[in-house]
UniProtKB/TrEMBL annotation:
Localization terms from the record: Cytoplasm
Lineage: Bacteria, Candidatus Woeseibacteriota
Disordered: annotated segments: 459-479
Alphabetically ordered keywords of this record: Aminoacyl-tRNA synthetase, ATP-binding, Coiled coil, Cytoplasm, Ligase, Metal-binding, Nucleotide-binding, Protein biosynthesis, Zinc
Species per Swiss-Prot/TrEMBL record: Candidatus Woesebacteria bacterium GW2011_GWB1_39_12
Protein name listed in UniProt: Cysteine--tRNA ligase
Length: 479
C-alpha cells in the first residue's frame, strides 16, 4: 500500500499521514444542520469525506468515524460570518412548517440517512445529535469558565478570544484580517468584548418560548453552534484525535472556534490533520436558496438522474478544487457512469479464469499500484478514475478487470459490484415519461423534427430511446 498524503489546512501543506495510535484512526466530520434537505454542495462535502474514510480503510486503518447532527443553535447569521446573529434555523423552519423544532429535526434526519444510503456514503460509527449532548456541552463551558476564558452578558456566555493567543491559527492572519474587514460593524450584543468573541451558551429571550431550551448554571437557553462539535468529538474520540473535516467555509469561523474551545479547555491540539473540501458552484456562481439554484438530491432525482451519477460527477474533480455544477455536466457524468457499468458488466460476464501471461500480470499490478498512488496522493479521484478507465479498456483478462473494478470501487463507492443487466435499465422519472409521451405524440402527427429535438434532450441525460414494436423503450447509453 502506498503512503498516504493529505493536505493539512493547519500547516497549509501536503503531509504524510501518521496517525496518533496506528492502526486506529479517529475522524470527526461536521454533519448536517437538519432544518431542511441538504443541497448538492453539502453532499459534495459528505462524499469527499466518505472517500477519505474509504481510502483510510483501503490503507489498512481502523477508522472510528464520528459525525454530528446539528439540531439546535445554528443561527442564520453565519451566512454573513457571525453565527451569533439572527434566528435559530430549526425554530425558524418549525414556524414556517407549523411543526415543532423536534419534528423538523426528526424529519430531516430520516431524510438525510435515506439520502446518504442512496449516495452509498458509509454510515459513521457514531452519528450523534447536539440535543442529546447538552450536559457534555454545559460541562465544557464550566471547564472554560474555570480557566478564565469566558464572560457573561445579558445575552449569553461568551468565549473571550483575547485570552486564547492561538485564535485564528487554522486560517491564518490573512483570514482573520478578511473577517475583520467584512464585519467589524456586526455586533448584535453591545456587551461583547471583542468582535470575534462567540457564544458558548445563548439565553432564551424573556418574551420568547423556544421549542428547544434547557436550564444551565447561567440561565435557561441553548448552546452556541460551535460547542457541540468540541463536546462530542471529545466524548467519542478523546481530547486529541487524528482528522477533522468539513467544507472550506468552516475554516474561518466554525473550526476556528472549535479549536479555541477544545484547545482552550484541554491545552492539547484538537486534531492533527484538518481537511477541507472546496465548494460546489452552480452555473459558475454561488448556490443559494434565494437564487433558486440550491438543488437538493430530490431535485436531481426528479430530473431523471441517479444519486450515484452525482457521486461520479463529484469524483471527477479534486476535493480541493471548486467544481461547477451544470445539468449538462451531470448528464455527462451519468453517461460516463453508465458506460463504466457496461464495461464492468461485460468483464463480469466474460470472466473465465485463464492463467495470466507475465506481461498481463505486470499490467494488472501496475493498474493497482497507480490507482493506489492516485487515491493516496491527497485523494486524487480524477486521476484514480483515469486509471480505472485505462484498466477497463486494456487487454488484460476480463476476470482481472472485474477484480480490479471491485477493488477500486471499495474506494470510489459507485456500487459497481451490483451491476447486472437489470441495473442497466434506468428508472424513468415523471419528467422523462412526459418527454417520451410528447415525442410519441409528435411522431404520430408526423412532426419528426420536433420529435427528434426531444430525443436529443433525452440523450443529454445519458439515456437513449429505442423504438420497438411494443413502443418506445428507454435504455442507458452503452459504450
Ligand atoms: P451545513 O449543513 O450547512 O452545516 O453544511 C454541511 C457541510 O456542507 C459542511 O461541511 C459545509 O462546510 C459544507 N458546505 C456548505 N455549502 C457547500 C457548498 N456549496 N459546496 C460544498 N460544501 C458545502
Ligand atoms: Zn462542527
Amino acid at each position: 500500500m502506498s503512503d498516504l498524503y493529505l493536505t493539512n489546512s493547519l500547516t497549509r501543506k501536503k503531509e504524510k499521514f501518521i496517525p496518533i495510535d496506528p492502526p486506529n484512526v479517529g475522524m470527526y466530520t461536521c454533519g448536517p444542520t437538519v432544518y431542511f434537505y441538504p443541497q448538492i454542495g453539502n453532499w459534495r462535502t459528505f462524499v469527499f469525506e466518505d472517500i477519505l474514510r474509504r481510502v483510510l480503510v483501503y490503507n489498512g486503518y481502523l477508522v472510528k468515524h464520528v459525525m454530528n447532527i446539528t439540531d439546535v443553535g445554528h443561527l442564520t447569521g453565519d451566512n454573513i460570518g457571525d453565527a451569533d446573529l439572527g434566528e435559530d434555523r430549526m425554530e425558524k423552519e418549525a414556524r414556517k412548517e407549523n411543526k415543532t423544532a423536534w419534528e423538523i429535526a426528526d424529519f430531516y434526519i430520516k431524510d438525510f440517512i435515506e439520502s446518504r444510503d442512496k449516495f452509498n456514503i458509509l454510515a459513521p460509527t457514531y452519528f450523534v445529535r447536539a440535543t442529546d449532548h447538552i450536559s457534555e456541552q454545559i460541562s465544557l463551558i464550566k471547564r472554560l469558565e474555570e480557566k478564565g476564558l469566558t464572560y457573561i452578558t445579558k445575552m449569553g456566555v461568551y468565549f473571550d478570544i483575547s485570552k486564547f493567543p492561538d485564535y485564528g491559527k487554522l486560517g491564518g492572519q490573512k483570514l482573520i484580517d478578511k473577517r475583520k474587514a467584512s464585519r467589524e460593524e456586526l455586533k448584535e450584543d453591545k456587551e461583547k468584548r471583542n468582535t470575534f468573541d462567540f457564544a458558548l451558551w445563548k439565553f432564551s429571550k424573556p418574551d420568547e418560548k423556544r421549542h428547544m431550551e434547557w436550564d444551565s448554571p447561567w440561565g435557561r437557553g441553548f448552546p452556541g453552534w460551535h460547542l457541540e462539535c468540541s463536546a462530542m468529538s471529545m466524548k467519542y474520540l478523546g481530547e486529541s484525535f487524528d482528522i477533522h473535516t468539513g467544507g472550506i467555509d468552516h475554516v474561518a469561523l466554525h473550526h476556528t472556534n472549535e479549536i479555541a474551545q477544545s484547545e482552550g479547555a484541554t491545552g492539547k491540539p484538537l486534531a492533527k490533520y484538518w481537511l477541507h473540501g472546496e465548494f460546489l458552484k452552480v452555473d459558475g456562481g454561488r448556490m443559494g436558496k434565494s437564487l433558486g439554484n440550491a438543488y437538493t438530491l430530490h431535485d436531481v432525482v426528479k430530473k431523471g438522474f441517479g444519486p450515484l451519477s452525482l457521486r461520479y460527477l463529484y469524483l471527477t474533480a479534486h476535493y480541493r478544487d471548486s467544481l461547477n455544477f451544470t445539468w449538462n455536466s451531470l448528464a455527462s457524468a451519468q453517461k460516463a457512469l453508465n458506460n463504466l457499468r457496461e464495461q464492468v458488466l461485460a468483464a463480469k460476464i466474460q470472466s473465465s479464469r485463464t492463467s495470466l501471461s507475465s506481461e498481463k500480470s505486470k499490467k494488472v499490478d501496475d493498474y493497482s499500484k497507480r490507482f493506489s498512488e492516485a487515491v493516496t496522493d491527497d485523494l486524487n479521484t480524477p486521476q484514480a478514475l483515469a486509471v480505472f478507465w485505462e484498466a477497463m479498456k486494456s487487454n488484460i483478462p476480463s476476470e482481472d478487470k472485474y477484480d480490479l473494478a471491485l477493488s477500486f470501487d471499495e474506494v470510489l463507492g459507485l456500487k459497481l459490484g451490483e451491476v447486472s443487466e437489470v441495473s442497466k435499465v434506468p428508472k424513468v422519472s415523471k419528467e422523462l415519461k412526459g418527454l417520451i409521451e410528447e415525442r410519441e405524440e409528435l411522431r404520430k402527427e408526423g412532426k419528426f423534427k420536433e420529435a427528434d429535438e426531444i430525443r436529443k434532450n433525452i440523450e443529454k441525460k445519458g439515456l437513449k430511446v429505442e423504438d420497438t414494436s411494443e413502443g418506445p423503450k428507454i435504455k442507458s447509453q452503452g459504450p
